Amino acid sequence: MNPSVTQKERIISLDIIRGLALFGILFINVGAYQLLMEGAPMPDMSGINGVIDSLIDIFIEKKFFSIFSFLFGVGFYIFASRAEARGDRPRWRFARRLFALFVIGIIHIFIFWGSILSIYAVIGFLLLPFYSAKVSTISKWLFTIITLHILALLGQMYMPSNAVSSAIFGFLGNDAVAIFIMFLSGFLVAKADWIGHIGAHSQKIKWLLYSTFPFFIGFSLWIWFASQADDQQLQSIIGLGVVPTTYFYLSGLFILLEHKTIAKLLQPIGRVGQMAFTNYLAQSFIGTAIISFMGLEVVSPSDIVVIASITFIIQIIFSVIWFKFFTIGPFEKLWRYMTYGKKVVSKQS
C-alpha cells in the first residue's frame, strides 16, 4: 500500500487556494501571537490603522479560515476515496488521521494559544457518517445546517434574550458550526466530482459566483458601516456573511485558476499550500520572531500587514526551495507516519 500522492495526482488549484488561505489566516493570527496583558498598551486603531482593521473585517475575518475549512472537507473525500480504492478502510484510516491531528494540535496550543488544529480534528469526526451518503442527502443536510446557523445568528441579533434561546442560538451560531458547514461543503463538492472537472462544471460555478456577488457587496458595506460605528453586533454581522462570501471567493478562484497562465504564475503560492500543515505550524514561530525583531510592544493593523507579508514571502521562498529536494513537507511526513505507521519516502528521485 502506497499512501503517497504523486505530483500528477495533485490538483494544483487546490494547492494555490490553500496557499492563499494561509496568507489570509496570517492577517488574523499575527495579532494573536502577542498576548495583551491587563494594563498593557492597546494597539493604535486611529487613522490608517482603523481603515486597515475594517478592511480585514470585510475581506478576511473568518473567510480565509472558512476557505481552509472547505479544503479540509475536500481533502477528507480525496483521502478516504483513495484509501478505499487501495482496499483500505477509509473511515478507520481517516479517524486515525484525525486523532494524529488532534495530538499535534494539542501540542501546538502550548506554542500558539489560537491554534485551530485540535478543533479541526474534533469537528472532522462529524464528517465520517457522511462518507457513504448520497450527494442529494448531503445537500439536504448542508442546506438545513446553513439555515439553522443563519437563523441562530439573526436570533442572537434581534430576538429577545433568555436562558433557553441564548443557549440554542449560541450553540447553532457558534463558529464551530460554520467550520463544519465548510467541511461539509468541501466534502460535497469533491464527492459530486466538481474538483477534478472544474471546466465541465464551469456554468454551475459561474452561477454560484454571480448569485453570491450581491451578498458579498451587501455584507461588505454592512460590515464597513458597523465597524465605523463600533457596532457591538459586528462579529454576528461578519458571521452572517461568511458562507456567501466564502462561496464567492472559492467560485471566483476556481474559475480564475482554470487559466493555465494564471495558475503557472501562482505556482510558488501553490508550493506553500502543498505543505500547508508545515507552514501553518511555522507561521507562529516566524511571526513571533519578526515581532520580537521589530521590538513591538503591541501589534497594530499596519504592523499586521507588514508581518504577514514578510512571513508569507519567507514561506514562499522556503517552500519552493524545499520541493526542489523533497516531495513532502516535514510535518506532512510526520502526520502521514502517524496515520499509516510506516515511513514515507520524501526525497526527490
From TrEMBL:
InterPro entries, alphabetized: Bact_Transport_Assoc (IPR052529), DUF418 (IPR007349)
TM spans (from-to): 12-36, 64-82, 171-195, 207-225, 237-257, 277-298, 304-326
Domain DUF418 positions: 190-342
Transmembrane listed as a keyword: yes
Keyword annotations: Membrane, Transmembrane, Transmembrane helix
One Pfam entry name: DUF418
Keyword Transmembrane helix annotated: yes
Source domain of life: Bacteria
Protein name per Swiss-Prot or TrEMBL: DUF418 domain-containing protein
Organism the protein comes from: Lysinibacillus boronitolerans JCM 21713 = 10a = NBRC 103108
